[in-house]
């Protein structure tokens, strides 16, 4: 089957999995996942499963990405912080929906590779930082201090305080929390200055590494 047809089939799988946000489904319809996986995994690009990328990391499972992005209730005017650029696939999905994406990745080889792929795809609304995601966006430019939406693609042992501090009023964060074998997706919202935490579905992500620098 052609990649294009496989992509449409994946969108049907996401719908069956409970995804209904039209912006999220449209993003999955547009972004070629085969461009973000390693050459040797291209033929498996549309399986609804995580796949290995470089540096012993993984490109997340499509349904899990779709669940996280649906929780964010994305809007075209949103400024989004993404922690864990990885392959850049989720970054591309986000950048097609919202105004700007700031994406942080700890491992430089992964960030640089994703930057290349995303530039080749023509995106002009993505900013990159190579560094520790526990600190959120600590970059002079663009000088954002807070974000409408935050999505973390690796599991944190505890909820990073600095990320909560960078969540704007009315903002939503989706973050996997827990250790290797026992993780849940948490949805955090800031309403009237206060943070509300909700535990959602069980999940399995690579760990959000504590940078020792
Ligand atoms: N959404 C990405 C997920 C990649 S896996 C994709 O689908 O490709 C998670 C990523 O988080 C990995 O690339 C890993 O290197 C990165 N990561 C782990 N700990 C981190 C940290 N403390 N700061 C920033 N990125 C981190």
Number of domains: 1
**CA distance, first residue to last residue:** 47 Å
Into which percentage range does the β-strand content fall?
25-35%
Q: Which oligomeric state applies?
A: single chain
- The top-level CATH class is Alpha Beta
Helix-strand pattern: HHEEHEHEHEEHEEE
Strand order of the largest sheet: 5-4-3-6-7-8-9
| CATH homology superfamily | Vaccinia Virus protein VP39
Low-pLDDT segments? none
Total helical elements: 6
User: Which CATH-level-2 architecture?
Assistant: 3-Layer(aba) Sandwich
Helix content: 25-40%
- Profile the largest sheet: 7 strands, mixed
Q: Can you count the beta strands? A: 9
Structural class determined from secondary elements: alpha/beta
The outline comes out as globular
Describe the structure in your own words.
- The protein is an alpha/beta fold and 213 residues long.
- It has a single domain, classed as Vaccinia Virus protein VP39 (Rossmann fold).
- It has helices at 3-16, 22-30, 62-71, 89-95, 108-120, 161-165; strands spanning 51-52, 58-59, 79-83, 100-105, 126-130, 147-152, 167-179, 182-191, 194-203.
- The chain has a 7-stranded mixed sheet.
- Strand 6, helix 6 (161-165) and strand 7 (167-179) form a beta-alpha-beta unit.
- The longest helix is centred in the first third of the chain and has 14 residues, at 3-16.
- The radius of gyration is 16 Å and the shape is globular.
- The termini are far apart.
- The mean pLDDT is 97.
- Bound molecules: S-adenosyl-L-homocysteine (SAH).
């Amino acid at each position: 089957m052609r990649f294009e047809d496989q992509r449409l089939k994946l969108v049907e799988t996401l719908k069956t999995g409970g995804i209904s946000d039209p912006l999220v489904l449209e993003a999955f319809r547009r972004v070629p996942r085969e461009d973000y996986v390693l050459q040797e995994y291209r033929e498996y690009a549309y399986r609804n499963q995580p796949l290995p990328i470089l540096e012993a990391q993984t490109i997340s499972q499509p349904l899990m990405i779709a669940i996280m992005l649906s929780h964010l209730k994305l809007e075209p005017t949103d400024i989004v912080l993404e922690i864990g650029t990885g392959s850049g696939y989720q970054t591309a999905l986000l950048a097609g929906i919202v105004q700007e994406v700031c994406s942080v990745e700890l491992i430089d080889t992964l960030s640089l590779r994703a930057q290349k792929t995303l530039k080749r795809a023509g995106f002009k609304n993505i900013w990159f930082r190579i560094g520790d995601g526990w600190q959120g966006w600590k970059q002079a430019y663009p000088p954002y201090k807070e974000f409408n939406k935050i999505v973390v693609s690796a599991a944190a042992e505890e909820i990073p305080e600095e990320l909560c501090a960078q969540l704007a009023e009315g903002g939503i964060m989706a973050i996997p929390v827990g250790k290797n074998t026992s993780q849940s997706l948490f949805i955090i919202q800031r309403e009237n200055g206060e943070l509300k935490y909700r535990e959602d579905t069980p999940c399995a992500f690579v760990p959000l590494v504590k940078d020792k620098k």
